[in-house]
Structures are given as structure tokens and as C-alpha cells.
Amino acid sequence: MSITIGVLNEIRTGEHRVALVPDVARRLVKQGVEIVMESGAGKSAKMPDADYEGVEFVDTAAAVFERVDVLFKVQPPTEQEIAQLRPQTIVIGFLSPHKHPECIKALRDRGITSLALEFVPRITRAQGMDALSSQAAVAGYKAVLMAANSSGQFFPMLITAAGTIRPARVLVIGAGVAGLQAIATARRLGAIVEGYDVRPAAKEQVESLGAKFIASDLSAEGAGGYARELSDEEKEAEVAHLAKHIANANVVITTAAIPGKPSPRIITEEMVRNMKSGSVIIDLAAEGGGNCALTQPGKQITAHDVLIDGPLNVPSKLPVHASEMYAKNLMNLFLLMVKDGELAPDWEDEVLKCAMLTHEGRITHESIRDIVEGRS
After folding, report:
1. I need a labelling partner for 160 at 20 to 30 A (CA). Which of 13, 150, 218, 228 fits?
2. Residue 37, C-beta contacts closer than 8 angstroms, at least 6 positions apart
3. The one catalytic residue among 153, 226, 265, 296
4. Catalytic residue among 88, 127, 208, 367
5. pLDDT band at 230 (very low <50, low <70, confident <90, very high)
6. How far apart are the C-alpha atoms of 161 and 155, rounded to whole Å?
7. Helix (H), strand (E) at residue 171
8. Which of 12, 27, 67, 122 is catalytic?
9. If we measure between CA atoms, which residue out of 6, 4, 5, 2 comes closest to residue 64?
10. Residues 17, 108, 110, 133: which is the catalytic one?
11. φ, ψ for residue 221, nearest 5 deg
């Protein structure tokens, strides 16, 4: 196999993951893939160069760029990085086109083929490539630990010589991958957990984890396993329905996000005002502005005696396992493009076609093309 994969140090602020871990590297090397990595690329993920077998390390990013056929990334490449890539290089990673349209233009103009992991379709045969789900699972787990650390009380019920300690009440809003992992983790810690989602189909999943599902008259099933955006009337009904449950909770974890759009505002300031003193909100939708009206993305604040945390890039806070899962997602997508030991992608394949963002000097994803180039 004459294919070279490249991996760089992730230079965007706050990123500790690495796109390739030692175990995945070994598996690729055994298949004949050559791998060149920038020295120290795995250091922030607690994976030193010495752990990588059969991988060539170089001192500069430029030495990677001049060699690679396929570049594995976690964060979108910067314009400076793109300018150093050889035309026809394939870039695979999270590309965040809604946040970084200037990078998409640069990829187009440089003649780079880019595959955005956030656009991998949620179909059965693509499950092993679904990085959105793998990283959301990490975020849901970590959010509960962050909440437990910030809360002033135990999560489980305790029977002690000093009396019985009641368990914490946790409400998880949004029962996607992150929400379900948060529910499962909070239950493992012994909390009383409620789950809410505007998709009725989520009821069975929430209850299977031992949580109570907050039933609603709303039905907002959307495409690709996501909820559709609610109308103004539906939003008002949702707020009224959730107010009582939020007021009773010690911890609220919100996960409701719409890809490419601002996160829906679910928790109003009035709701926060009615929460118990010392309650905690962990807003996993902070990347899109937050589900709480008071959330400040990237900051932890206190308002009305309630701690409101709007963390960004939560999977990076658990870089070891987040990197392991992410690297396997990348490997599975990469191997879909390999045939008889050579790079031979079938661009009509459903997975590759959906994930493709730029190719042969064009932005191939229609909705992103409309955003970056304007509607024709």
C-alpha cells in the first residue's frame, strides 16, 4: 500500500485530543500504510511519541504537509495550514463549516478534497465512522462529573449515623447520544434522574436507563435522528411544561442542539430564578449559544444563586478515550476509501458523498456552498 497518512499537533486553543492513537496507528501500519506525525502530536492526550510503533516523526508541520496523501485532523485546519497542503490531498476531520467558512474557501481554492465527520450520515453501516456520536458520548459522561464536582451535595442516597442523605435530583434535557450518556452516568452515581426530549421515540431509551421520562404533547422528530426546530408556539408550550421540573432539580444538564443553527433557548431567566439555591446547570449546548438564556459560552457564572456552566469542547477534557474513539472513527472512514492497497475512493458511495465538503476546486455540499458562496 503506497498511502501516507499525516497527523499534526492540534494548534487551536483548548484542544487536547489527537487524531491518531498508538493502537490505531499499529493497525494501519500492519496494513501497509505509512504514517508521518509531527513530534509531540499526542502529548496533550498523554500519548508520547515512544508509544507509536512504526510511525515516522518529524520536527515540523511543513515536513508533514509535503509528504501526506491523507491528513487526519481533530479541529479544522487553519488557513495557514491549508496553504501548505499539496493539491489533491484528502483532509478528514471535524471541519465546522458554519463557524469557519474562510477555511472552506481555502480548501476549495487549494484543490483539497475534504471530508467533514459531522456530515457522516447516521446509517447502520456508518456507525463506526460517526464521530459526532462518539464525542457526544464523552461529553455526556463528563458533564455529569462536572455537575457532581460543582454541586454542594451527594448524588446517591446515603444512610449514615448522622441520618439519611437524600439523593440529588438530576434533569437531563435532550435524549440524544450526549443526553442518554448523561442519564446513564447520573444513574450510576445514584441520582434520581428525569429525562426530557421533544421526540416521543426517546421515551423508551430514557426509561431503559432507569430514568423517568417527562412526557410532552410535542412531537418534533427530525431528519437524521435529530429533533426539528420548534415553532414559537411550541417553544412557549415547552417552557411552561418544563418549568416545574427545572424548579425541582438540583442539577440540570442541557444537550439540545441543532447542527449549524443557534441552540434553542429552553431555560429562561425566570426558570433560573425559581431554582433552588445552590443548583447547577451544565449547558452542553454552549457551542451554539446555550440552552439557558443566561449561559455565557466558555464561562462559569453564578446567577440567582445558581451555578451556570457553559463549557466548550467538552470531549477534549477527557482526551485519552475521546482520542481513542475519534481515531477509530477516522480509520473506518479512511479504510472505506482503500481498495487493493491503494487509495481508490468511490465518491458516489453514500457515506463519502454525504461527508464530502470540497472536491476538485468546488464546494460540493449544497447547504454549505449556499452559505459560503451565496445562493445562486
Report:
1. 150
2. 6, 7, 8, 20, 49, 52, 55, 56, 57, 58, 64
3. 226
4. 127
5. low
6. 18
7. strand 169-173
8. 122
9. 6
10. 133
11. -65, 130
Decide if 12 contacts 79 (C-beta within 8 A): no
Residue 305 annotated in active site: no
Cβ density class 94-130: b for 16+ within 10 Å, e for less: bbbbbebeebbbbbbebbbbbbbbbbbeeeeebeebb
Give the confidence band of 227 by pLDDT, cuts at 50, 70, 90: low
pTM: 0.92
Q: Which of 52, 110, 114, 130 is catalytic?
A: 130
* Local structure of 230: helix, strand or coil: coil
C-alpha to C-alpha distances, 32 to 27, 320, 337, 341, nearest whole angstrom: 9, 26, 14, 8
Active site residue 133: yes
84 tagged catalytic: no
Which of the four pLDDT bands, split at 50, 70 and 90, describes residue 1?
low
Instruction: Please say if the pLDDT value at position 228 is more than 60.
Output: no
Greater confidence (231 vs 136) lies with: 136
- Residue 217 reports pLDDT greater than 90: no
pLDDT in tens, 20-79: 999 999 999 999 999 999 999 999 999 999 999 999 999 999 999 999 999 999 999 999
Those residues whose C-beta lies under 8 Å from the C-beta of residue 272, and which sit 6 or more positions away, are 281, 292, 293, 294, 303, 304, 306, 308
Active site residue 122: yes
